[in-house]
Amino acid sequence: MDPRSKIELLPEDIARFGNDPATTFAANLKTVQARIAAACHRCGRSPDDVRLLPVTKTVPAHILRLAYAAGISDFGENKLQEARDKQATLSELPIRWSIIGHLQTNKVKYLVRLATEFHALDSFRLAEELNRRLDALDRDLDVFVQVNSSGEESKYGLHPDDLMPFVARLSEYPRLKPRGLMTLAIFSADQRRVRTCFRLLRDLRDRAIRSHPGLTQLSMGMSGDFEIAIEEGANVVRVGQAIFGARPTGNAFYWPGLAEQ
Ligand SMILES: *Cc1c(COP(=O)(O)O)cnc(C)c1O
């Protein structure tokens, strides 16, 4: 059965996503993919080197059925509880869940059961707990080490100076498969400042990869800045609003301390 036929849209769904969300998402997806391809073309990269990770946070589970119908099966969520609730509702769909936001240690037991990758590793405490819980389930997890590339207090992630000592010890956690680095650039209309954040992450990756050949990937770039991120070497772009429309909650809701814009 076409998953669309099972959905009854609520008035608030129509207000936020329109009358035909599946068609809208599919069209937005195509546009974002075309923008990714164009950005790659501009800087001589292959679009195959850039993976689009759709970010589904705040999009209700019943609407995500329409996203799935529109061809989206990788879902990035930044809150574990929200991901758990959606996963329970959508358990019959073959969705890959990526947790991309800060994680409290007491939520690790849930993450290891549902996530295929984790983009916000930034402490040994978390690494230890992840490894322990993964080992109990006899599974591995792809991880990205988050770096605070903007120096903003509101952002999670390791200080750039702490990255090398951190990755040097990751082999103590054999269930973690470090794939690369992740960052959130500064929210700024000044593209140079945004670019500086991405460039810093790339430089760190270039340094780290010499001793840790598995650390190849850069997870960086969101709706507002993914083209700059691609120009600076992004391999994973995490894009929500350009596909699903503006969130009713602004960025400050997700990054406390950030001035609303
Ligand atoms: C929400 C979020 C994104 C996507 O942001 P958009 O503006 O919706 O593209 C990317 N990365 C992280 C960590 C997020 O929380």
How would you describe this structure to a colleague?
It is a single chain. With 261 residues, this protein is an alpha/beta fold. The chain has a single domain, classed as Alanine racemase (TIM Barrel), CATH 3.20.20.10. Helix content is 42%, strand content 15%. The strands form 2 sheets. A 6-stranded parallel beta sheet has the order 2-3-4-5-6-7. A two-stranded parallel sheet has the order 1-8. Strand 3, helix 5 and strand 4 (115-121) form a beta-alpha-beta unit. Helix 2 packs across helix 3 and helix 5 (108-114) crosses helix 6 (124-137). It is globular and about 50 Å long. Pyridoxal-5'-phosphate is lined by residues 55, 57, 78, 100-101, 184, 222-224, 238-242, 254. Pyridoxal-5'-phosphate binds next to strand 8 and helix 10.
Can you summarize this structure?
The protein has 261 residues and is of the alpha/beta class. The protein contains 11 helices and 8 strands. It is globular.
Span between termini: 42 Å
Taking strands numbered 1, 2, ... along the chain, how are they ordered across the largest sheet?
2-3-4-5-6-7
Structural class, from helix and strand content?
Answer: alpha/beta
What general form does the structure show? globular
Indicate the proportion of strand residues. Answer: 5-15%
How is the main sheet built? 6 strands, parallel
Which sequence of SSEs, written as H and E, runs from N to C? Answer: HHEHEHEHEHEHEHEHEHH
Low-confidence stretches: none
Protein name: Pyridoxal phosphate homeostasis protein
InterPro entries: Ala_racemase_N, PLP-binding_barrel, PyrdxlP_homeostasis
Function: Pyridoxal 5'-phosphate (PLP)-binding protein, which is involved in PLP homeostasis.
Domain Alanine racemase N-terminal: 28-248
